[in-house]
Amino acid sequence: LSPPTAAWLQRTGTAALTVVGGPVAVGPVPACQLAAGDTRAFRCAEEELVRQGYNTGVPEGIVDHQTVWMIYAFQKVAALPVTGEFAEREWQAMLANPRLPVRRPDLGPDHIEIDLARQLILVVRGGQVAHAVHTSTGKPSTPTVRGTFTVYEKRNFRQSWNAMYRPVFFHRGYAIHGYPEIPLYPASHGCARTYDGDMDFLWPMLWIGERVAAF
C-alpha cells in the first residue's frame, strides 16, 4: 500500500473493505495488508518471502526460530545488517525482491552453490537463485573445502555420533546437513550446517548427482 493509502486506512479505522481488481491491479502484499487490517503485518511479509523462495515454515505471523533463520538469509541477500529482526528497512527491501546472481552458470541451470563469504546455501533452478538458506560453514581451523563437487550420498536420519541431521554428502566427509545450532559465523568442522527445519526444506531439492560449488 502507498503511504497515503496506509495512513488514511489507519486514521479512519475502516471496518470493512472490498478489493476490486485482479492480482496485477492489487498485488498479494497489499491484499494481505487489507485483509489483516495492518499495513505491516508480519504474516504478509512471510507470505511474500515464501513467494520469493525463502523457508518461513507455515506463515503464522509469528517470529519463531524458523522465521529468524529465514530473516538471516534474507538480510544477507539484501546486504542488510544480520540481526534476525524484520523492521521497516527489511519490509522495503522485500518489496524490491533482491536476488543474488548465479556465480557458476557453467554448472548448468540446476545446481547448488555454497557462498562462504555470505554464509548461504543457494539453490539454483532454471538458471536463477531460487532459494537461499542461512548456513554456518567450516571454522578457520577446519575450513570448508572449496571447489566443484557432486552429491554422492544422502542419509535420511540424524547421526547419533555427531548430531548431523539428514546429511547430504558431496565430497569425502563434507556434507550439507541440519544441526541444533547455527551461529552467525563459520563454526563447523567443514560441513555446511543449517537449521533442521531448513534441512527438511532442502532435502527434496538435493539428489544424487547434483553438482555443488563451494566458493
Task: Name the descriptors.
215 residues, alpha+beta, five-stranded mixed β-sheet, four-stranded mixed β-sheet, 9 strands, 21% strand
The profile of the biggest β sheet is:
5 strands, mixed
- How many distinct helices? 6
**Topology pattern, helix = H, strand = E:** HHHHHEEEEEEEEHE
Average residue-wise pLDDT: 94
Share of helix among residues?
25-40%
Write structural notes for this entry.
There is one protein chain. With about 220 residues, the chain is α+β, with helices and mostly antiparallel strands. The protein contains 6 helices and 9 strands, in the order H-H-H-H-H-E-E-E-E-E-E-E-E-H-E. The protein has a 5-stranded mixed β-sheet. It has a 4-stranded mixed β-sheet with strand order 5-6-7-8. Strand 6 and strand 7 form a beta hairpin. Helix 2 packs antiparallel against helix 3. The longest helix has 13 residues. The chain is elongated and about 60 Å long. The protein starts with a helix and ends with a strand. The model has no long low-confidence stretch (mean pLDDT about 95).
SSE map:
Blueprint: H1 3-12, H2 28-36, H3 42-51, H4 65-77, H5 88-96, E1 111-115, E2 120-125, E3 128-134, E4 147-150, E5 153-154, E6 165-171, E7 174-179, E8 192-195, H6 196-202, E9 211-214
Parallel strand pairs: 1-9, 7-8
Antiparallel strand pairs: 1-2, 2-3, 4-9, 5-6, 6-7
Helix pairs in contact: 2-3
